[in-house]
Specification:
heterodimer; A: 208 residues; mainly alpha; Arc Repressor Mutant, subunit A; 2 domains; globular; B: 227 residues; alpha+beta; 3 domains; two-stranded antiparallel ribbon; 7 strands; 37% helix
Amino acid sequence: MLYSSPLGSAEAALQFHSFDAGYVASLCAGDRRTQDHFVGYFTELLQVKLRSRLQSLHAIEDVRQETFARVLTVLRKDGGLRQPERLGAFVNTVCNHVLFEQYRSSSRSESLDAEGRPELPALGADALDIVVARQIKDKVREILLDLAPRDRSLLKAVFLDERDRDEVCREFGVDRQYLRVLLHRAKQEFKAEYVKRIGNQVPLAANA
Amino acid sequence: MAAERYLLDELTPDAREAFEEHLFDCPECALDLRAGAAFVDEAKAQLPEIMATLPAAARAPTGRPKVKRNHWLAWWRPAFAAPAFAALLIVLGYQNLVTFPTLRTAANQPRLVPLAPLHGATRGASHLAVTADRKHGVALPVNLPLEPGIANYISYSIDLYDPQGRLAWTGVVAAPGEVARGDQPLSLVIPGAMLRNGAYSVAVSGVAPHGERTVIERYVFDLLLTD
């Protein structure tokens, strides 16, 4: 196993390092903690990947669940992966296939739900998750309030108003690199808090 | 900056695919992107409230900064004003203790100025070398021709041209009375500060009653500064 024992009081919190044969074997065997980690870890990545390709949250959720279901089915059927350290790449490949099917089926309004698929563990928010979420929220607010008013407006125009990047840059008299650096700095400052609060632990608040 | 480009949707489809393939395999990059995405998501949730509650000034300019600052007032800040006043005091002190006494002495006391032999051989287009120094300058004899038969001028204009051919100075003297006969000598004193190495010329023009000017004499000389 390449993940450690539970950290502190959060029983389900695992310090993740990398995937290996033991991890995949536990996943195939239906180990609850490994499944929790697997779902939590890849949920965030899949959501980031899918939201730029799919408009509806429902479709994103469909693809995410279908991806997990197919990965677990294949793993259990074939008894693991020949290259367990490539589990992440495998999840991505399966997701691409599911996404392609989603594109094709969206016009026919077919559901991707199917019976007989492995049931994924449901993750709910507990008191600790709520506290962590509050701290994350406070940190982001602190970073936003520390920004220059113009930079704050810039982020709003790009991410909230979703305006054309070039047009926004022209209007604010900055270039694309300025925007990248602005986001990079904010992200780096936030990342310290993020790692401290969540880091590579299983994101328990993820919707599964 | 790959994560930032990804979050800003700046990657080409191929680059995006390649980055995602790496992302799912690399926990470090995955963590980086997750942090960035979490920040963006939370920022999107909080920005409307923050922008609404902040005072208008802090809420921001939606474009280039439009606040025009008066940069002249910035010079009155202590950081600029104190050294500026100190420098001003030094200049005033130097002027009062050194420059003004020197000028006063020069104005109130006799001084010797070398007289260049400009007359005679230098008339017309012939050149004469005149040496001078910047401290004393040079004095040039200029004659006003008043022989009988010359037109009746009411005044004379003396024009000094520098080595670049530009008019450096002009002086006007009234014509002598009817009783005057022969050339009237004048001294044209050129201070050292005006002098440059090169060919100067002095033109003497007679000004007729109706304003017409006629050049009646021209002196040309090569000035050589000794300091």
